[in-house]
Amino acid sequence: MQYTKQIDRIIETDVLVIGGGSAGFGAAVAAARNGAKTLLIEREQMLGGMATGGLVGPFMTCYNDEPTEQIVKGIFDELCTRTEERGGAIHPSRVEGMSTYSSYYIKSHCHVTPFSSEILEVVMEEMVREAGAEILYDVQVCDVLTDGGKITGVVAAMKEGMAVFCAKTYIDCTGDADVVYFAGGDFVKGDEKDGVMQPVTLFFEVGNIDREKFVGALEEKKAKGELGIPGENCWSWYIKEARANGDWDIDRHEVGNYEEPIKGRWKINTTRMAYVDATRTEEISKAVMEGRRQVFEVLHFLQKYVPGCENIELIEMASRLGVRETRHIKGQYKLTTEDILDRKHFEDAICTFAYAIDIHNSEGGGATFHQVNDYYTIPFRCLVPEKIENLLVAGRCISGTSGAAASYRVIPCCIATGQAAGTAAALALGEGCEAGDVPTEKLRETLTRQGAVIKD
Asked: Residue 206: how many CA atoms within 13 Å on its side-chain side?
């Protein structure tokens, strides 16, 4: 079927940020603060993506692996501080490991940031608008127009019809590299060996837990040294019993229960749907429905087996899947697991990170977990796709292997790469060059001056 339609509405800007998740938030704030006319378009009616609509939380660690130093600051740290001031977060400097806020993990879970998704989305919106960027919600990207290796427009559906968004620089913050895909750019899905992607999750929030009984049982296990082990952590002993009784058929051996800064509320990360390609509508739909089924199985388990959960209540299920992995772009440099573990030096490094290489297994219910060597950096070239001149990419779909992405896919790093992309896009306007060609010394100096941490 061939369909032809004339689009009369053209919307122009200097920098167009596509996707308002954590990376898009960071990119829009940075681009606007550095003087670029910036427009952010988002398919939902909120910013934050996984952190808000997906209920994913807490923010994983923003510290080095020791952990002795906060290494993700800049816009991310400002977001944490401002959300805390609104009563919706606890700053990571005040959160130790092996606590209710980290689901009693210690490795790579010390100095996490508990937050309320509802308050976070308000603070994000305030920061973007205060920076001077504009936001348009309910905008679904449908296609990308190109000419000679450059994007000439992004086609999107709006409530009132189709529109084309034209900019000098485009930043793909969709998480799935949708702009790269529509523009005909190169990418790899999932693991380069067989294309398998990490399982997806549907987060949910609960309340009405008897905290004294619930935490007391966990603290008793903690005192015996029986908590904090990946794959064998919170309530794993009850899951074994429930599985034997036919009350648990989820391919997961523990319950990730993360206390929020708002009294009585907990985020639960336990559901697991494997072999899902979250770039395909049919598979997303099936996974969401299976996730909702699993939510009620987890609730039944908690109510029947776990102390303090006898009267547990469901507050909210995420409105979108928690997706860990889809497309990885082919950029000017591909970050590898070896680069991370060896702490390879990059002259064009634009951020520093240290979360573990955390690969959720598609079979067996566990995870493969590798600590990093104190910290590592990400080069700017990972944000610059091959073949498309006026496009940058930020977030979990930057150029890297599946193993490397298992570390940098989490929210603090997505905001940091977003800040780098937005800053580069703004600097390119003054330099009169494409964003991928900005002088990296000037980019790094600007990022550092504006609070980012770039360790050499």
From this structure: 27
